[in-house]
UniProtKB/TrEMBL annotation:
<feature type="domain" description="Ketoreductase">
    <location>
        <begin position="9"/>
        <end position="187"/>
    </location>
</feature>
<dbReference type="InterPro" id="IPR002347">
    <property type="entry name" value="SDR_fam"/>
</dbReference>
<keyword id="KW-0560">Oxidoreductase</keyword>
<dbReference type="Pfam" id="PF00106">
    <property type="entry name" value="adh_short"/>
</dbReference>
<protein>
    <submittedName>
        <fullName>NAD(P)-dependent dehydrogenase (Short-subunit alcohol dehydrogenase family)</fullName>
    </submittedName>
</protein>
<dbReference type="InterPro" id="IPR057326">
    <property type="entry name" value="KR_dom"/>
</dbReference>
<comment type="similarity">
    <text>Belongs to the short-chain dehydrogenases/reductases (SDR) family.</text>
</comment>
<dbReference type="InterPro" id="IPR036291">
    <property type="entry name" value="NAD(P)-bd_dom_sf"/>
</dbReference>
Length: 253
């Protein structure tokens, strides 16, 4: 475990009820962070926290501005500061090319993956500016889709490309306040999302064929997030790509 952070730093983890968010939250708790667990449903958040004294579950839909404001107000009321935001909540969205997806499905994907990330980052930055010059750190969960799309994932891919712009803008604008922002792009963790795209049974490739793709344990991805979070204030990991060994990413197509 990294011990580069000060004991008791406060982290907000969105999408903490399952998958990567759950793994990151649990690893942070084990590493001494006080963790605000955010997600739409309280029961999974409580399961993530598993009764840990430093876990604080706050139900939140990141696409709803009032929910996000309430989330960060609760974090500040409980622990007085926000040192790290893991901007993780997201949905895969509709399967289809740009001419096949409905406007409603497009809007719903953008609302969670992009607008929700912006709302959480904005609330975190407001809190972190009051902590200047120490500031804080934001880690955005992108995807290898931010580099190279899968077939029929127009909505998801666009939001992940946009996440890169959000990340760079936050990093630039936060410099004067000690706020850093980096993006982790993860490919083929063994989570429910991989079941959605059929990685284990045969995911659609660019040429229309299907391929059973390798996956890797979600805890390994969580360790990469913890590394980014635990860097000293003098350093920032701006971009990190971690994938299952041998997955069709480099040379995709």
């Amino acid at each position: 475990m990294t011990r580069q952070h000060l004991p008791g730093r406060v982290a907000v983890v969105t999408g903490a009820g399952s998958g990567i968010g759950r793994a990151v939250a649990r690893l942070m708790l084990a590493d001494g962070y006080r963790v605000v667990l955010a997600g739409r449903r309280e029961a999974p958040l409580q399961e993530t926290g598993a009764g840990h004294a430093q876990a604080f579950a706050v139900p939140c839909d990141v696409s709803v501005p009032d929910d996000v404001e309430r989330l960060f107000a609760a974090a500040l009321e409980r622990w007085g500061r926000v040192d790290v935001l893991f901007n993780n909540a997201g949905v895969f969205g509709p399967a289809g090319s740009v001419d096949e997806i409905s406007l409603a499905d497009w809007d719903a994907t953008v609302a969670v993956n992009l607008t929700g990330s912006m709302l959480c980052a904005a609330a975190a930055v407001r809190a972190m500016k009051t902590q200047s010059p120490q500031g804080g750190r934001i880690i955005n969960n992108g995807s290898v889709a931010a580099h190279s799309p899968r077939p029929r994932t127009a909505a998801y891919t666009v939001t992940k490309h946009a996440m890169t712009g959000l990340t760079k803008s936050i990093e630039l604008d936060g410099r004067g306040f000690g706020i850093t922002c980096g993006q982790i792009d993860i490919g083929n963790t063994a989570t429910g999302l991989m079941d959605t795209i059929g990685a284990g049974s045969g995911a659609v490739q660019a040429d229309g064929s299907r391929l059973v793709e390798p996956t890797f344990p979600v805890d390994d991805a969580a360790r990469a997030v913890l590394l980014m979070a635990g860097m000293p204030p003098s350093a920032s990991v701006g971009s990190l790509v971690i994938t299952a060994a041998g997955m069709p990413f480099i040379g995709r197509g």
